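Appendix B.2, paired examples.
Example (i):
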Amino acid sequence: MDTFLNFSKRVKDLIDVTLGGVSAIMLLALTLFVLLEIVRRYVWGVAWEWGNDGTIVGMISAVAFYFVVTQARRGHLVMNAIIQLIHARGHFKAVVISKIVVSALIMIFCGSIGVTGWSTVDYAWVRDLQTYSLLIPLWPFYLIMMLSFILMAFVSFLQIIEDIISFVRGEYLEAEMEATTDV
């Protein structure tokens, strides 16, 4: 069991470092690009045709990557609020069971989208679908979305097993709740 927990921690740390860094760099670069685009459009009166499309597709891709990081950290606001409320009332077994149920629902939802969405990637590839400006192909964006959903499902699967191990070992009784201030 400890081997699995170490593997799970390494996977989540790798996701945190790589996808967290990639999404942060993408968001920063795209924000700077949008500021440049604003100056170009409203000061000089010119703009790149693909500027809006590139920004939208890039931002959504960066957010999709960061959703995986959020899942790996269990940083969902609603889940934290409910879990903290149950934990504060002393229902420790209910906390672990609700974590298992929530992770299972996320795994099923994200896994089903990740698996069934490949037809969309294939369709965009075969038809050579482009953005409105007809300069940016859509299939890389769809591919990023599908990979993000599959990674979220995989992370949720790891979290289900972690929570089951915690439940079997009885670690949930002395586990302290992480206080979050973002709710």
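Example (ii):
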Amino acid sequence: MKEFFQSPKIKIFLSVLLVLIMLSVFTRNVENNIISATFNTLTYGMSKVTAAASSDNSNKSYDELQKENEELKTANRDLRSRLVDYYEVKEENTRLWMFYELKKEHEDYTLIPATVLRRDTNDEFGSFTIDKGTDSAITVGDPVMGENGLIGWISEADVYTAKVVTILSPQTSIGAIDKATGDTGIITGSAKYADDNLTMLSKLTSEHKIEKGDIITSSGASGIYPKDMVLGEVTEIGYDTYDTSNFAVIKPYDDISKIVNVAVISDFEGQGEILKKESGD
């Protein structure tokens, strides 16, 4: 074996092999270093270029986005304004359609649709303020309709709003009649019944024939309220020991505490004629 490794051919072979191995290692290291250096240089350069391009694009995009943002804000404002107008018109149309049948039955009525703005929380009789006033030809004393009947009257009016006192209030005094029996009385409110959305038909004669379920309407006797406006339905018959008179408890067909849309009757045939005759005008 010793002689084998000492052979000239073997020595030459081993020497060449060693040189090749060293060259291979050296070349690989150099090659890797060159490639690494070259790659790092190229990467650094590309990153600089990319960074510059990104910076330019970012600035450009920001300006464009800022402009688009302003345009969108303007468009949104315009859209909101249009939506407000749309909903106002839609609400007005809803109110008009709500009282369309009333207008069709009473062509002499001048109806002014209105919406409840706020309620008087200190008033146990349900008074409220509407969004129409003298600018819409509304005056004190005008009758106020709910969807299903007469619910009150205008007690105060300024240019753009008006206050409504309801038929639940003792301030109310409306001549009324039982359509079935012809018995008459006065619709006026009472603290005893107001919380239950009830009012009273007072001043009934002892011979009255009113019964539960009868429909009560306005008599139109004073000229303040139109004739035959529905006020409600009889739910109870009573006797007032204080003024020794008979009365009926009336339930309006509208829940006055939840009223949202109303119509003010600003004019009707025969309005004020009785008062004019009484005053001699």
